[in-house]
Write a structure and sequence with these properties.
The structure holds 2 protein chains of 2 kinds. Helices cover 29% and strands 21% of the residues of chain A. In chain A, helix 6 links the parallel strand 7 and strand 8. Chain B is α/β, with parallel strands linked by helices. Chain B is 27% helix and 22% strand. Chain B is built from 9 helices and 11 strands. In chain B, strands 6-7-8-3-9-10-11 form a 7-stranded mixed sheet, sandwiched between helices. A 4-stranded antiparallel sheet of chain B has the order 2-1-4-5. In chain B, strand 4 and strand 5 form a beta hairpin. Chain B is globular and about 65 Å long. The chains are: A alpha/beta, B alpha/beta.
């Protein structure tokens, strides 16, 4: 069973029409108690994802991007703020949670550990459908399963096989098909292609893009890969120590970063091109500070190459710079951009 | 003082026609099929490939650390004139850590969790016959400052250090015995982008100038950042081998061109994320002839036979290399 290539659809540029908000996050805080102190994993994050959009969250480990996504899915209770999915408060008590759980699905980085090794693909597909009461008998949904397998480029014979029979790229297709059988509106994908081989990554990216159009999906993608995000996402939010430090159109943010952290992230990404190799790299010193005791003022000032006295005391707001443009939380936006 | 001088000059590593295989039901299954490469002291070579191409096995064979039942079925590996393939266990113990150091992929699991960092350094040095306490202290201080760590880390346990600090400790550990060759297997894959940049900067700078560095990676960008030369592996063989600027400037093998086109970059005018159809072959089930031919877009009748690596500085294993 060879995976089909998806050679026809260019991922970029893409018409952007929808403007109806599907997901609205407002002033979200996620806090965990740690030995009598408070770990602030997510601090005052607000974002809006429109229907049909691809929204990316970029950041390094510990920046709070996974906590944010878990709060969005209703897995974590926020300590302040709200998450609204199609206008419904995700965290309000009530019977609507089943509808939200089905509408918001998670796609994991590693497909293999997310699939039960002792179950056939048919049973792997059936369990979430049963849990969501989509059918009372497996035979009713056999045709749906076959159709969804075909839509991810796999044959119906896959239904009787086990996860071990497939390659990484094929498993990610199967994980995707399992989600799609629930007819979700929003897919939260945590590093959806970073565990795959480079030559297979592009196949899955094209598949995600085709499915988004065909099945009217919206994506929230978590990634550390800025070049990838600049190509597949409409909008991006860059997170550092629990906060959004820069947000705007994905191609603009990654090409002309305004925040020094985004600039460092862009510069740190190794790209196999001669002109990229000749760039001077920004090497950040030190480690990210602890989210239990975040620095005063701008949280990035301890590692920022252009930090000044003001950055240590005064917290910059996330707003467009005086000259206009996308929102950035820095007192000196653009000073280190395009290094 | 130098462990390598006891065995001859520090010449680096020369691998010739290396085959690695394992036996399955009496049949010999080849995973690495005729790899030849050389890295001199002061040079940095990246072995680039996707999963299952045999790049990690090639690297591990330099330390005589092939996981059973895999073994070197043909070919030779010479490091500073020592034949690693035919070496006895006693010789290998001197080679490992002494002449060839290893930087692993995952710094989290590579350090003994119940030993302080200082003791781990001492163990390595004592094993390689640096017995005087003063000399050990000098050497450790020297390599620690080289990787930008303070002396206090010697008092710490591994769990008290961040991932980036642990990887710096491992680089320092690799350097402390003054080896000829350092094998680094995906040394930054487990790290964040900004920490990765720091480590890559270290490996490409002053620090590794007195060794022959063989780096294993799946990421052409990482390879290009650190190394002067690149060997692209596919299906157990090297399909393209040459200086980085030559390969990036004029990639000759269709697989290399595919890899470059599949990776995303920042240039909006350049097509990217172009997929290569199919998936990489599984070790032991390589297609006959040119292993890339089932996925190749410009395949011809001659591709039924395996092309040899040919060319001067920049070698390509493709029947249509000159045409493309």
């Amino acid at each position: 069973m060879s995976a089909t290539g998806e050679a026809t659809l260019p991922p970029h540029p893409r018409p952007k029409t929808a403007t109806t908000p599907l997901l609205e996050v407002a002033g979200l805080h996620v806090t965990f108690p740690v030995g009598g102190r408070r770990l602030q994993a997510v601090r005052d994050v607000s974002l809006t994802i429109n229907e049909g959009a691809v929204f990316a969250i970029v950041g390094e480990s510990g920046c709070g991007k996974s906590s944010l996504v878990r709060a969005i899915c209703g897995m974590y209770q926020p300590s302040a703020g709200s998450v609204r999915f199609r206008g419904i408060d995700v965290h309000a008590p009530g019977e609507h949670w089943r509808q939200i759980r089905r509408g918001v699905q998670l796609l994991f980085q590693e497909p293999l550990p997310s699939l039960n090794p002792r179950h056939t693909i048919r049973r792997i597909f059936w369990e979430p459908m049963q849990a969501n009461r989509l059918a009372s008998d497996m035979r009713e949904v056999e045709a749906d399963m076959r159709a969804q397998l075909a839509s991810v480029g796999l044959g119906a014979e896959a239904l009787d096989r086990y996860p071990r029979d497939f390659s990484g790229g094929q498993l990610q297709r199967i994980a995707l098909a399992r989600i799609l059988l629930l007819k979700p509106q929003l897919i939260c994908a945590d590093e959806p292609v970073s565990a795959l081989d480079v030559s297979v990554q592009a196949q899955v990216v094209h598949l995600l893009e085709r499915l988004r159009v065909e099945q009217a999906l919206t994506y929230l993608i978590i990634s550390h890969d800025l070049p990838l995000v600049s190509r597949i996402a409409d909008r991006v939010a860059v997170m550092y120590l629990g906060e959004v430090v820069e947000t705007g159109p994905a191609d603009v943010v990654s090409r002309e970063p305004q925040h020094p952290y985004t600039a460092a992230l862009r510069s740190a990404t190794p790209v196999a091109r001669m002109d990229e190799l000749q760039r001077k790299r920004i090497i950040l010193k030190g480690e990210p500070p602890s989210p239990i005791d975040p620095p005063s003022g701008c949280a990035f000032h301890t590692r920022c190459p252009i930090a000044r006295a003001r950055c240590r005391t005064e917290k910059p707001a996330l707003q467009p710079p005086p000259g206009g443009g996308h929102r950035v939380a820095c007192h000196f936006p653009g000073e280190m951009g395009n290094a | 003082m130098d462990t390598a001088t006891a065995h001859g000059a520090r010449t680096g590593v020369v691998v010739e026609n290396l085959h690695i295989a394992h036996r399955k039901r009496g049949q010999l299954i080849e995973i690495v099929r005729g790899v030849s490469l050389s890295v001199a002291v002061g040079e940095r070579l990246a072995l680039v490939g996707e999963s299952g191409t045999g790049k990690s096995l090639t690297a591990r064979s330099l330390l005589g650390l092939l996981p059973p039942p895999t073994f070197v079925s043909a070919g030779s590996i010479r490091i500073d004139g020592i034949d690693v393939v035919g070496a006895s266990d006693a010789q290998l113990r001197r080679v490992r850590g002494g002449i060839v150091s290893f930087i692993p992929q995952d710094p989290m699991s590579a350090l003994n969790p119940v030993r302080r960092i200082g003791r781990i350094f001492d163990e390595v040095l004592v094993r390689h016959c640096v017995v005087s306490k003063a000399e050990r202290r000098d050497r450790i201080a020297h390599v620690l400052s080289g990787v930008g760590l303070q002396q206090v880390v010697l008092e710490r346990f591994p769990h008290q250090l961040s991932g980036g600090m642990k990887q710096r400790v491992l680089i320092a550990l690799a350097l402390v015995t003054e080896p000829t060759v350092i094998v680094a297997d995906e040394p930054t894959t487990a790290l964040d982008a900004t920490v990765q940049a720091e480590i890559l900067d270290m490996l490409s700078g002053q620090l590794a100038q007195k060794v022959a560095l063989l780096m294993i990676t799946h990421d052409l960008g990482v390879a290009a950042t650190v190394c002067q030369n690149i060997a692209i592996m596919y299906g157990g063989t090297i399909v393209e081998y040459g200086p980085i600027h030559s390969i990036l400037g004029a990639p000759g093998h269709p697989y290399t061109r595919g890899l470059l086109a599949a990776a995303p970059d920042f240039d909006p005018d350049r097509p990217c994320l172009v997929p290569i159809a199919g998936s990489p072959p599984v070790a032991g089930a390589f297609p006959p002839g040119c292993a890339f031919s089932p996925r190749c877009s410009s395949v011809g009748a001659r591709c039924q036979q395996e092309p040899a690596l040919a060319g001067g500085d920049h070698q390509i294993a493709c029947w249509f290399a000159s045409r493309s």
